[in-house]
Amino acid sequence: FAAATLLGVLEAGLYMTVSNGLTTAYQSGSHELFSRRLSVAIGLCLVTLLLGTALSLSLALYPRGLVFFGLGHLTEPGLHTTAIMLMLAVVVQTATGPTMTIYRAQGRFIRGLVVGNVMAGARLGLIVLGVVLGCPPDVAALIYLCATVLFSLAIIPWDLRTNLDRVRFQPSLPTKAEMTEVVATAPWFFAQTSILNFWSNVPILVLPF
Q1: What is the DSSP letter of 76?
Q2: Nearest 5°: phi and psi at 81?
Q3: How far is CA 8 from CA 29, 48, 49, 92, 152, in A?
């Protein structure tokens, strides 16, 4: 799971960049700007999702690629399947994470916190149930992946569209000016989140060595 979590670097600072941009736009009363920034955010999330999925599937088809990252011990049949499914789950969660900032942008932070915790608790409950029923690790990982996809791509977007203001999931690619603005800000947030990510997970990954 620590190896899979490292894919969180694909977030590349978008979480806080999107959060600040949406909050500024909504609080200024410019609904047009908010809608535009949301569309661009969704577009960037989809790009992240596609890149992360492509990377995970490439490692599924070519297990030896894990050796390049010093994760050769994950090429064993059982571990490999489990690792790939966890990677896909982390990719989905990372790519859709910025959409959770919509709650904060519209002053609905508590609702977002409750929704996030309920979803996380429900997912954990399903995994625990699977383990209690004797599911092997790869099946538990599949449950984790399916629950993550369901919550991140269906339930949470439904809640956002239903209970928040002017939330429409219509992806757009950023203009050159918008991309310049993102590039000027995101690396600083990326540095903070990636350092924490590596600091938390690399020590676990070196244990097998």
Answers
A1: S
A2: -60, -45
A3: 32, 10, 11, 10, 15
What local confidence, expressed as pLDDT, does residue 173 receive?
86
Q: Name every residue whose Cβ is closer than 8 Å to that of residue 113 and which is 6 or more positions away in sequence.
A: 103
* Angle at 43 (CA atoms; ends 41, 48), nearest 5 degrees: 95
Distant-in-sequence, close-in-space partners of 156: CB < 8 Å, separation ≥ 6: 96, 99, 100, 115, 119
Q: Which pair of tokens denotes residue 59?
A: 């490692």
Secondary structure of residue 129 in the 3-state scheme? helix
Sign (positive or negative) of CA dihedral 195, 147, 100, 177: positive
Per residue in 84-109, is it b (16+ CB within 10 Å) or e — as a string?
bbbbbbbbbbbbbbbbbbbbbbbebe
pLDDT on residue 57: 80
Express each pLDDT in 5-44 by its tens digit: 555 556 666 777 778 888 888 888 888 888 898 888 888 8
Contact 38, 50 (CB under 8 A): no
pLDDT in tens, 144-185: 899 999 998 899 899 999 888 878 888 888 888 878 887 777
Asked if 161 and 167 touch (Cβ cutoff 8 Å), the reply is yes
pTM over the 0.90 mark: no
